[in-house]
Design brief:
With about 475 residues, the protein is an alpha+beta fold. It has 4 domains: about 5-100, Rossmann fold (3-Layer(aba) Sandwich), CATH 3.40.50; about 125-205, Dna Ligase, domain 1 (2-Layer Sandwich); about 210-350, D-amino Acid Aminotransferase, Chain A, domain 1, CATH 3.30.470; about 350-475, no CATH class. It has helices spanning about 15-25, 40-45, 60-75, 85-95, 110-120, 135-145, 165-185, 195-200, 210-215, 265-280, 315-320, 325-335, 430-440, 445, and strands at about 5-10, 25-30, 50-55, 80, 130, 150, 160-165, 200-205, 225-230, 235-245, 255-260, 285-295, 300-305, 350-360, 390-395, 420-425. A hairpin with a 2-residue loop joins strand 9 (about 225-230) and strand 10 (about 235-245). Helix 3 (about 60-75) packs across helix 4 and helix 5 (about 110-120) packs across helix 10 (about 265-280). It is globular.
Length: about 475
């Protein structure tokens, strides 16, 4: 088979899901820039032709490493599913003369550059200001309407995002944000191509008001969605939309759901805004994950777009509901093979699937007063969900049993995650209701006496216990 170099770093779907889908189309050689989930290797390792671990380095040094390894294995494509390695892999692919995200990839990673590109293209974005020094904060409050959201320009998973109402709060938040990014970087959860920029670069932007009730029938939906897609040789293929539950303050995601319960006409309006945003970025060949805020009277604003698939289990949700193996499709596109794209974005699927993050916060956003140990098997899952709904622990992105559930910290975002669960249900409304019941039941369900092993929901696919810390990263 054709060799492909898979660059593994923090974030992205679990290897036990991703590697078999790459292996179906190519001979897989892994270059690991982060620790590998050894306890799931019985699933992913047999499909790999080689596995090499290396210290990532930075900038040109990292690109050199990727290129030399790609040449050594004769790779005809280089792929990563990690937010943090997207830029380095794109530059390596350019140097090697292979398909990739292209020379403008930074616009899909640096949130400041992204917004400048969109503003120039007339794509709707909230008002924003770049923060390089304290005087930039003063200037931002002179032109923007508070409250404002402080964002790390290279973060993922809502890490180092804080809401502020005045200059003093913004200065304190900027200090906190830099500390959070430094701590994340020390654990490998930071931009690999330019680690110093990943820690120090920030922006302030206006917090626009979302109105889920204008778009969705029924309660429980968040006020933004994501469009999942692929850019193929410069041509954008939007594939489907995934929805959300409401975020936790400031804007940490807790559940991604497919399909999104939106009428076709509204989905296609979202599709066109996503197309304008992705086209403006000028990407070549890569996955895309575009987040859009939904406001009253049909208003929309771009939150961000990434040159990779949605985090953690988004690819599996799409495959379960819409029948699209997006990882396999991207591999074939990178190798120059034929790919069967839908003629238009899919708006209807079969059943429903979701990713639910376990955070120590109740459904109203209040922190838990107690922090029991995490133990998936201690919860009576069938008692919490509808008939026909199945709950599976994504062990590669969950704490080991017996680990205390960490307190939720606003600035830490997804760094506070204790576990990730994958749900399948017979319908979208059932899935949404089930997620709500689970959130309401925790942490009491973790503190209750353990159920008999046969009463716990059986996994739908094999999963192996990992003691690794959960991987921060956007769910969507």
């Amino acid at each position: 088979m054709t060799p492909i170099l898979f660059v593994h770093a923090k974030g992205g779907p679990p290897l036990e899901y991703a590697v078999p889908r790459i292996v179906a189309h190519a001979e897989v050689h892994v270059l690991a820039l982060a620790s590998l989930p050894r306890t799931t290797e019985s699933v992913w390792l047999p499909g790999c032709a080689s596995v090499t671990t290396a210290l990532p380095g930075e900038g040109a040094e990292l690109v050199d490493l990727i290129c030399s390894h790609a040449r050594r294995v004769g790779a005809e494509a280089v792929l990563t599913l990690s937010e943090y390695a997207v830029v380095a892999v794109a530059h390596a692919s350019l140097r090697l003369g292979l398909r990739g995200a292209g020379e403008r990839v930074a616009g899909a990673r640096d949130k400041r550059l992204m917004r400048r590109i969109w503003q120039a293209a007339g794509v709707p974005v909230p008002g924003f200001a770049e923060i390089h020094a304290p005087e930039d904060i003063t200037a931002a409050f002179g032109t923007l309407r508070p409250p404002l959201l402080l964002k790390a320009a290279w973060s993922a998973g809502s890490t180092a995002h804080l809401s502020v109402w005045n200059e003093q709060q913004a200065e304190a938040a900027w200090k906190t944000g830099r500390s959070v990014m430094e701590a994340s970087s020390a654990r490998g959860y930071a931009e690999l191509h330019a680690a110093d920029q990943g820690v120090s670069d920030f922006l302030l932007e206006e917090i626009v008001t979302g109105e889920a009730c204008y778009w969705f029938d029924g309660d429980g939906w968040g006020d933004y969605v994501s469009v999942e897609g692929i850019v193929a040789d410069g041509h954008y293929h939007p594939l489907c939309i995934t929805g959300r539950m409401p975020t936790i303050a400031p804007f940490t995601e807790r559940a991604s759901l497919a399909p999104a319960a939106l009428p076709d006409a509204l989905q296609h309006r979202i599709e066109e805004v996503s197309r304008a945003a992705v086209d403006a970025l000028g990407l070549d060949t890569c996955a895309t994950h575009t987040e859009i805020k939904l406001g009253a009277d049909g208003a929309m604003w771009l939150i961000e777009a990434a040159a990779r698939f949605g985090g953690v289990m988004t690819t599996r949700q799409v495959e379960t509901v819409f029948g699209l193996d997006m990882i396999g499709m991207l591999v074939r596109q990178l190798l120059g093979r034929e790919v069967a794209y839908p003629q238009r974005m899919l708006t209807e699927g079969k059943g429903a699937a979701g990713s639910l993050v376990v955070l120590a916060v109740d459904p109203e956003g209040r922190p838990w007063t107690e922090h029991p140990a995490w133990d998936f098997d201690a919860v009576d899952w069938p008692a919490l969900v509808s008939p026909g709904t199945r709950v599976e622990l994504v062990r590669e992105h969950s704490l080991a049993p017996g680990s205390p559930v960490p307190p939720y910290e606003e600035a830490g975002g997804a760094n506070s995650m204790a576990a990730l669960c994958f749900l399948t249900a017979e319908s979208g409304p059932a899935l949404l209701a089930d997620c709500g019941r689970i959130l309401a039941a925790l942490p009491n369900a973790l503190s209750a006496p353990s159920v008999a092993p046969h009463a716990a929901a059986a996994p739908t696919t094999p999963s192996v216990l990992s003691a690794d810390r959960p991987t921060p990263g956007s769910i969507a």
